[in-house]
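re: ur question from the group chat, yeah i did fold both. here u go
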Amino acid sequence: MNWISNYVRPKINSLFSRREVPENLWTKCDECGTMLFHRELSDNLRVCTNCGHHMHLAPRDRFNALFDGGIFTEVKVPLPIEDPLKFRDQKKYPDRLRAAQKANDEAEAMLVAEGEIHKTPVVAAAQDFSFMAGSMGMYVGNAIIAAAERAVKLKRPLILFSAAGGARMQEGILSLMQMPRTTVAVEMLKEAGLPYIVVLTHPTTGGVTASYAMLGDVQIAEPNALICFAGPRVIEQTIRETLPEGFQRAEYLLDHGMLDRVTPRGQHRDELATILRMLMGLGPVVHGDLPRPVETTVPDPAPEAEALPTLDPGTASPATKT
């Protein structure tokens, strides 16, 4: 046994070697390739500080930035049948669900919550694209119905953040049935006279676009978000023509009248509060916790002075009656 080679040298190398850097400290932007420090990226709501590319943002993180003080209450969603079709491809459907739940630490692809945005009470729902591509299954349908019912009960507007690859194939026709179900839920809001605002994030495609994602009273999208039913590659292969640059992106749809505005993620909080308060007939947004103005009373004007006695012309004394 060589004591120097087997013990001394490894000990010295361990003392002077560079410590390994965790892989999750830096994130590479998919658009421009810039390496972004994780804290800086998180503080900027996962928007690239170099090119403005909007990366995936989990619903819980989105709600933490959206609601006042990051305070919100989750709305309970009824659980559907776990595997109604006994579907299996490379894995069983329940195994895929459990793997997605473990990876995302969420129950399903949509989170529903209630809280306040700039003192404006709202109900919000957000899809998680990282959970099986945000696919629309029975749980998502139940979540939107639960959100609409809660909004009607509390007389609050509903905000929905969409992000999905379409219907969930593991649930077959039951997944497609969520399109009319969610449409009825949106109609409940309209009958109650409550605003329904949709924020379309990247990507929003398939049956989601053909149902609740395009039924908002106001349609807002994040910059460069892909919004479509069939993707551009499928369309090009079908019609055998090259599509225009930026086709089916948020800016293209805004220019062609399918969206009301394209708003960066960092401005959603102020934008949504302003729009909601206008639609609800409330006063303008007050930024910050300002004290209520002190009511002041204006004093009554001073009484007119008594008229001075007139002087007799040619004398310096008041006129006297003779």
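okk and heres the other one u asked abt
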Amino acid sequence: MDRNAPLKIFEQPLNERIRACLRLDHLFARIDHHLESASRNDALCTVLLLLEAADVLSRIDIKRELIKELERQQGRLMNVGNAPGVDREKLDALLEQQNDLIRALHGYHAQPGAHLKSHELLNAVRQRASIPGALCEFDIPGLHYWLGLPAEQRREDIDAWLAPFADIRAANELVISLIRNSVDTMSVTADEGFLQQSIESATPYQLLRVMVDNDADLYPEISAGKHRFTVRFMTLDRQTGHPRQVNEDIEFRLALCRL
């Protein structure tokens, strides 16, 4: 397997904290994608994703979890500060960035996403969005009035709705980035498309990353527990949507991330 070839990356969180972080990362990445366009449909998708992010944040005390993770990562980084080969200037800048985010999160007293729940139009969208096809003009005429505003005005509103998420998002992105880049990848072979490997339960692994060639006609199904994980490579019948396990040896790259 060529280490320089383009890769498709599949990730499996190994605890609930990282699961929530990855979901938020996914939602904000999709928001960024739709913000690149000024169309009505992209504006609607952005609103729906914002509401989805607020719902994710309402199910977990993400501020507390991010503070805990930042402090834990900071402690680990400080322990390696005097190790040979460490760029002390870069490390100090990273530690200061973590301190700034921890202070910002401590200073955020509202429930993340609460500002969206006090907005009458957004509440109407939230209530109707779960009903199939229920965002028509006759369902929420106010929404379609808003979607018909000039793109600059819609963007002003969206930026205002996004602003209170800034510190949460920055902390989330830093946490995930440090975890993703905490270890090098290793080359692994799944015999007849299947790999099972033990995990040291005393080691705080947080994220499993599987990387396959970009042109490979397959994908991994990953499951993980406290003591082991399995990777089963599948191919998909596009006509029926039925998955089928690959029965040949698959070489791929694996990262079992911890920090």
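fwiw on the second one: Residues 16-177 form a domain with the YacF-like fold (CATH 1.10.3900.10). The chain has two domains: 16-177, 184-258. idk if thats what u expected
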